[in-house]
Amino acid sequence: MAAGTAAFVLLGNGGGSDGDTGRRALTADEANRLAITRFRNYQTGGRAVTITVPSTGGGLTVTGAVDYRAKVGYGVVRGSGRDTSSDGLIEWSSTTVLILPMANAPATLPNSPPASGWYRRPVTTAGSSLDSALTIALGLGSDRPDNAELLPQNGAARVGQDEVRGHRVVVMTGPKSTAASGPSGAVRYWVGSDGTMYRVRASVASEQQPVVIDFDTHPYVAVRPLPGATSTPSS
To answer: CA dihedral in degrees (184, 188, 193, 197; nearest 10)?
Structure first.
C-alpha cells in the first residue's frame, strides 16, 4: 500500500513521554524505521495483539493475534465496565466478522477455535469502534515497505521517545487514512530501533477516546481461519 493510505490517525494523549516533546523532522534513519514497520509485521507472519476499544457503554478488550499474511485476526473479547453480553471469541477479515458469544469467555485464546456456533456479519464501515479497531489492526501489515522519502511529505515527524515493555522506542507521527478520524499528520507509532512496531494509538470517529493496539503482550497463538465454520447470519 502507498504510505498515504496505509497508516492511521493516532492520538498522543496518555502516559509516558509520547507527547509532542521536541517535535522535529524525521532523520533518514527514523524515516526508514517508519517505512519498514508494517513490513516487519508481514515478515514475522503474525503478532500477538491486545486491542483496547473505547465505548461510551463500557470498553472492550480483544486479546488475540493477527496473521498479517493471511489478513485475518482471532481473539477473545471481554467487556470492561459493562455486562458480559459482548464477551466471547471473534475472528475477522477485511470484510467479515465472526462472533462466538460466550457467557464465560476464556482468559486466554484457545489454540483451536470451535467449529460451530459462530455468527457471521459484514464489517461495519462506520459507527462501530470495534470494527474500526479491527480494521486498523489488520492494516498494520504490508507485503512491502512504504516509501521513506514520501513519509515526511505526508506529515510524518518525530514527536518523542518512550519505553514499551522494556523496549526503547521512538514515537512518530504519520499520514492520515480513511480508516480512522482526526487531523492529517497526527498518526503515531511506537517503533523500536530495528523498525519493530510495539504500539499504535488511533482515533475513531464514533468515540472520543482512542483505540490502542499493543503488540507482544502475550504468547502468539496461530490464527486458524474458519471458512468451514457453521455460522448463523445475524439479524
So the answer is: -120
